[in-house]
Amino acid sequence: MPKQNSRWTDRQIELIIGKLLRIGVILAAFVVFAGGIYYLAYYGASSPDYRVFRGEPTDLRHVRGIVQDAFALHSRGLIQLGLLLLIATPVARVAFSILAFAVQRDRVYVVVTIIVLSVLMFSLAGGHI
Amino acid sequence: MIKSKLVMDALVFTVLIWLGSIIAGFFGALTGLGGGVVIVPLLALGFGVDIRYAIGASLISVIATSSGAASAYVKEGYSNIRIGMFLEIATTLGALAGAFLAQRLPTSTIAVIFGIILVYSSFISVRPPRPKPSANIPNKLATRLRMNSSYPTPTGRKPYYVHSVPAGFGLMFGAGTISGLLGIGAGVVKVLAMDQAMRIPFKVSTTTSNFMIGVTAAASAGVYLNRGYIDPGLAMPVTLGVLLGSLLGAFVLVRAKTRLLRMVFSLIILLLAVEMIYSGLTGKL
To answer: Hey, are the CB atoms on A127 and B100 less than 8 Å from each other?
Structure first.
């Protein structure tokens, strides 16, 4: 391995990633929980039916719609925002890794990580071929 | 089991699913199989939830537990970020393929495939394959990819060499496809690829696998979200329950003897497998 005096070591990168993941999960769980309480206060007495698959309404399928619903304080939109934060947590980890590998001047892994991030972004954009 | 004819209001439904998810997460962490393998059958068979909603909710919970556990594991210094990142190319592409496949296959076929994976998981959790001794000679490709590293042991850090990168890569694509198709972490397949093909030490492969599961699941979650498979009312109790359960499970794991629990759990999984396959073949799911 090359000298890593002033650059980040693998160990330091791992610890930052660990912190990043923890913050993401705690934040997401908090938003989902808050939205959940709100949801039950509103819809607690209704009877949900998941036996027949209908698919979610369009606004709960896309990042923009979810954010709009959440900021309009719709309970289901709020939960969905929390779930989106959860999906975004590993994506953020990958994005951070590009920076970390770049600081280490590890070109091969910068490319490897960009490929992984591209697949993730393609999926989040809806995965339309 | 609760028959689907019973009408429940959202509050009772949410609390029951939350409790079930805690148990699933607890045993999933204890056995290393993850919560998803129990959550999907629980929702589909127990609560009569359409398997597509069940898979969507499970997938989200998989991301939560993986990220939560990975944040604890990195401190111990076993996981290898280079191995993880390189193999994530394969698992994320596989996950995309799995998510697209899930939209095209009939739900009954998905149920049968799920059942087969459950049988395999049940078998593995009782009889884990013996780890192969790691080789002492460096492999050219693995060296080029800087995958060789060392891991902490009581007598200091022990170096290891990674092997069969292409075979591991191929198996990882398969693991990603299973994860994306069934909404589970498929950690069993990932660990198998790393242990058996790439000869990575057990502690390194399990922690690195866990690290990869979240990214893999995120790759198919985007597609699932876009196709309307992820319902907030259902994913909320599942995610919060599995997350809590897996934290409890990890806590107990370091303190208790888990042999008996593993046996019981693998038996339950086997029964779920039989019911999934039966329901799939008879067209009930």
So the answer is: yes
**Distance between CA atoms of residues B63 and B31, nearest Å:** 18
CB of A38 within 8 Å of any CB in chain B? no
What is this model's ipTM? 0.90
Tell me, what's the pLDDT at B138? Answer: 84
- The predicted model gives B59-71 an average pLDDT of 89
Please tell me whether residue B160 adopts helix, strand or coil conformation: strand
Residue pair B47/A50 in contact (Cβ under 8 Å)? The answer is yes
Residues of chain B neighbouring A39 (CB-CB closer than 8 A): 10, 232-233, 236
Q: Which of B62, B85, B84, B81 is nearest to B241 (CA)?
A: B62
At A3 the pLDDT is 46
Average pLDDT of chain B is: 88
Top residue of A19, A116, A118, A122 to mutate, by most chain B CBs within 10 Å, is A116
- The residues near B176 (Cβ < 8 Å, ≥ 6 apart) are B90, B91, B92, B93, B94, B95, B96, B97, B98, B186, B216, B219
List CB contacts (< 8 A) between B221 and chain A: 87, 123
